[in-house]
């Protein structure tokens, strides 16, 4: 029994959920064909680990039916039936808990029941508390639209029941508007979602959404909405700018339009949408890998992160942990820009908001980056060596940083050993897109070449020129700026030595 679906599900229950489940199962209102309370109470004794050797079908049977013999097909089938019924009750309980937490869905069903029972007085009272065209206090914009769609559809039927045809027609028009706006916004959002999918090396086919957006003049729709003072114009226009930013070749123009637009209209949106928009802006800045504009967009990215923290929208809910990906990206960006004081304060304040499973490793990782950029390489190495490597998500980041530290400290033996293991890791990794693998392999190739040149007793400026030329010709290289900087440093060293010889 230890490996059954029932036990697997019960292991995930918190103590509070187990207590609630017991009350749910014991309630006559929720009772099923078979009484599963006795088997639940028997199985519950093995909570939370459920790893006792006594947790067998035979032992459970004897607890439920003392004195009866276990072993025939009938007794075994009975235990299987009871556990199956208990599993179904657990699932029903989870659905009940979810329904209980969904206030909007509950209000929809309540209104519908009041309408059917013609209790119009209570209907009016409940409905009046829901009349709110604001979207900033809800959840995600499209979800809120659809919730309003269902509430308004109930009111439409209510109006028909009471022969209020003008109100019914107005409600019908609202439901149509909600659904059309939701479809339009979802179409705009789809472009951004496709970009995320390709980032994870997922195949993206052609869908009905593509057909819709490719054959619709979205610009004209927006112009018409603006001309008619549509209440939804600022909302839809925001998602349109996201769409254009991701779709057009000159996305920078739309990035700055979106950034300005959000400064003016951010308060229209819920916190979850605000979080999403700033994440989209940050993703766009991170994707600007063109070497001519990379520095300016690093500063843009820092500004986005700084505003996200100042506005308290670096996570969707206060009770949530700060996402490990966001934390890592903020650390990397601030470290690259040498914002040391800012980064120290960030680590000190926000590392406590990481999930407990990642908190220690991410703090070590952040400090390693901070010390490296400050030129304190031994301190950086000390922090990296504290990380539980097998459990850490950012193995690629750690290997790159470790290679850089070995280079700075002239730990050639360790660097070349890391080179071999790093190369094997990249070649065998299945969860990286091809361009990431190629970029990582190129980083190793040029770092190795750089170290070979650095190890020579007499460093040749010609070798450095060749290496610099090859690097500039490469399209995909991780830490391109770092490699360029190290080549330039060696060039300065060579030129300085030449100048010193001329003096003497």
Question: What this model shows, in words?
Answer:
It is a single chain. The chain is mainly alpha-helical and 504 residues long. Among the domains are: 97 residues, no CATH class; 111 residues, no CATH class. It is built from 24 helices and no strands. Helix 4 crosses helix 5. The radius of gyration is 31 Å and the shape is flat. The model has no long low-confidence stretch (mean pLDDT 90).
Task: Compile the SSE list and pairings.
Elements: H1 5-11, H2 15-26, H3 37-44, H4 57-64, H5 73-101, H6 103-116, H7 120-128, H8 141-161, H9 165-199, H10 208-214, H11 218-227, H12 233-247, H13 251-265, H14 271-287, H15 294-310, H16 324-336, H17 340-350, H18 356-373, H19 377-384, H20 395-408, H21 412-428, H22 434-455, H23 461-473, H24 480-503
Looking at this protein, list some descriptive labels.
mainly alpha, 24 helices, 504 residues
Number of strands: 0
Helix-strand string: HHHHHHHHHHHHHHHHHHHHHHHH
The profile of the biggest β sheet is: none
The helicity comes to over 70%
Cα(first) to Cα(last) distance is: 86 Å
Q: Counting H and I runs of at least 4 residues, what is the number of helices?
A: 24
Estimated structural class: mainly alpha
Strand content: under 5%
| Arithmetic mean pLDDT | 90
Report the uncertain regions. Answer: none
Q: Radius of gyration, rounded?
A: 31 Å
What is the molecular shape? flat
């Amino acid at each position: 029994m230890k490996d059954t679906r029932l036990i697997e599900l019960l292991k995930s229950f918190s103590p509070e959920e187990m207590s609630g489940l017991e009350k749910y199962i014991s309630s006559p209102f929720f009772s099923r064909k078979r009484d599963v309370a006795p088997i639940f109470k028997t199985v519950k004794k093995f909570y939370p680990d459920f790893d006792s050797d006594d947790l067998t079908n035979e032992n459970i049977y004897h607890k439920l039916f003392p004195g009866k013999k276990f072993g025939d097909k009938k007794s075994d089938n009975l235990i299987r039936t009871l556990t199956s019924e208990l599993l179904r009750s657990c699932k029903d309980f989870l659905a009940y808990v979810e329904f209980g937490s969904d206030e909007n869905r509950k209000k929809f069903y309540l209104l519908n029941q009041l309408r059917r029972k013609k209790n119009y007085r209570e209907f009016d009272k409940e409905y009046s508390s829901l009349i709110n065209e604001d979207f900033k206090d809800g959840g995600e914009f499209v979800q809120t639209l659809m919730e309003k769609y269902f509430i308004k559809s109930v009111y439409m039927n209510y109006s028909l029941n009471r022969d209020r045809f003008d109100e019914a027609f107005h409600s019908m028009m609202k439901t149509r508007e909600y659904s059309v706006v939701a479809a339009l916004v979802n179409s705009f959002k789809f472009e951004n979602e496709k970009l995320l999918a390709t980032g994870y090396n997922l195949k993206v086919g052609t869908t009905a959404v593509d057909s819709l957006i490719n054959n619709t003049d979205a610009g004209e729709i927006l112009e018409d909405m603006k001309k008619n003072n549509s209440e939804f114009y600022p909302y839809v226009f925001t998602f349109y700018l996201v769409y254009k930013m991701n779709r057009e070749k000159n996305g920078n123009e739309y990035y700055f339009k979106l950034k300005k637009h959000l400064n003016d209209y951010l308060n229209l949106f819920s916190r979850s949408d605000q979080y999403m928009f700033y994440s989209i802006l940050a993703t766009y800045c991170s994707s600007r890998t063109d070497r001519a504009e990379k520095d300016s967009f690093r500063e843009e990215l820092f500004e986005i992160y700084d505003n996200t923290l100042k506005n308290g929208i670096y996570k969707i809910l206060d009770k949530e942990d700060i996402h490990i990906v966001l934390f890592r990206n903020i650390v990397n960006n601030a470290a690259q820009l040498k914002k040391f004081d800012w980064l120290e304060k960030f680590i000190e304040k926000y590392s406590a908001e990481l999930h407990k499973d990642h908190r220690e490793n991410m703090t070590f990782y952040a400090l390693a980056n901070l010390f490296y950029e400050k030129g304190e390489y031994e301190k950086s190495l000390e922090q990296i060596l504290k990380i539980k490597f097998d459990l850490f998500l950012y193995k690629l980041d750690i290997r790159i940083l470790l290679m850089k530290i070995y280079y700075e400290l002239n730990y050639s033996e360790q660097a070349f050993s890391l080179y071999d293991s790093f190369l094997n890791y990249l070649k065998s990794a299945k969860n990286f897109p091809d361009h990431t693998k190629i970029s990582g392999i190129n980083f190793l190739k040029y770092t190795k070449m750089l170290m070979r040149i650095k190890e020579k007793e007499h460093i040749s400026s010609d070798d450095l020129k060749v290496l610099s030329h090859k690097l500039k010709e490469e399209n995909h290289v991780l830490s391109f700026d770092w490699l360029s900087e190290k080549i330039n440093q060696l060039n300065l060293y060579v030129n300085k030595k030449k100048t010193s010889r001329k003096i003497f």
